[in-house]
From TrEMBL:
Annotated TM spans: none
The organism of origin for this protein: Clydaea vesicula
Pfam families per UniProt: GST_C, GST_N
PANTHER family reported in the protein's UniProt record: GLUTATHIONE S-TRANSFERASE GSTA, GLUTATHIONE S-TRANSFERASE-RELATED
Lineage start: Eukaryota, Fungi, Fungi incertae sedis, Chytridiomycota, Chytridiomycota incertae sedis
SUPFAM superfamilies reported in the protein's UniProt record: GST C-terminal domain-like, Thioredoxin-like
Domain GST C-terminal intervals: 90-215
Domain (GST N-terminal): residue spans on this chain: 1-84
CDD domains assigned: GST_N_Ure2p_like
Assigned protein family: Belongs to the GST superfamily.
Name of the protein this chain belongs to: Glutathione S-transferase
Classification via InterPro entries: Glutathione-S-Trfase_C-like, Glutathione-S-Trfase_C_sf, Glutathione_S-Trfase, Glutathione_S-Trfase_N, GST_C, Thioredoxin-like_sf
Length: 244
């Protein structure tokens, strides 16, 4: 059986959302193992044998290991989406999906991730870094705003793995200091609402555990930030197991 090793993060949600979609359509059964990154479980030898990079998500499909979230999405689409419902069969449509997958991996994820870090977790306040990464994150959402001007989803008018790859980060933009309002990003906000109306997306966003921040409950935001700071401090002090 397929097993997903994951944590409550935007990168992990990419895969859990797709697995929930595959479960809904095809009845795909899978296991979930929560990886406690605060305890460095992702740096244990048993995990590194599956993923030498020591990060989540990772899948074990009957002894075949795949890491890197976009690679996992591609693998799952090729193997389990037999009707091409989420990854089109037509060559040019496939290229557009891959284009948005690569853009997410090279732009949205890295820039918003750094914005998260310097706003919420950095041990010292560095205004230049916060401004730099928040500005770049806003620029990236302006790109999405333009893309969505004349289409319903990122790769066209059909929902695909490109949307699954991006929605978790978009749902977390406020945590990075970027407010996606209807006044400034109407197409993006409408897209978020459209994608999050899918039951598999909402259930996928709650795997392995529910992060109340992306469901509108900020009552634990301060404690979440402090926990993140502590984890990163521990990672820096234990450089042999660092995720940085």
């Amino acid at each position: 059986m397929l097993t997903l090793y994951t944590a409550t993060t935007p990168n992990g949600w990419k895969v859990s959302i797709f697995l929930e979609e595959l479960k809904s359509v095809y009845g795909l059964d899978y296991n979930v193992i929560k990886v406690d990154m605060g305890k460095f479980e992702q740096k244990e030898e048993s995990f590194l044998k599956m993923n030498p990079n020591g990060r989540i998500p990772t899948i074990d499909d009957d002894g075949f290991f795949v890491f890197e979230s976009a690679a996992i999405l591609y693998y799952l689409a090729e193997k389990y989406d037999t009707k091409n419902l989420f990854f089109p069969a037509e060559f040019e449509k496939r290229v557009k999906v891959m284009e948005l997958l690569f853009f997410q991996m090279s732009a949205q994820g890295p820039m918003q991730g750094q914005s998260n870090h310097f706003l919420r977790y950095a041990p010292e306040d560095i205004p230049y870094a916060k401004n730099r990464y928040q500005s770049e994150t806003k620029r990236i959402y302006n790109v999405y705003e333009r893309i969505l001007k004349d289409q319903l989803y990122l790769a066209g008018n059909e929902y695909t793995i490109a949307d699954m790859c991006t929605i978790g980060w978009a749902a977390s933009a406020t945590w990075a200091g970027v407010e996606l309002t209807k006044d400034e990003y109407p197409n993006v906000v409408n897209w978020i609402e459209r994608v999050r109306s899918r039951p598999a997306v909402e259930s996928g966003l709650s795997i392995p555990t529910r992060n109340e921040l992306i469901f509108g409950d900020w009552s634990k935001a301060e404690s979440a930030a402090e926990a993140g700071k502590k984890m990163i401090k521990d990672q820096i002090e234990n450089s042999s197991k660092s995720l940085l």
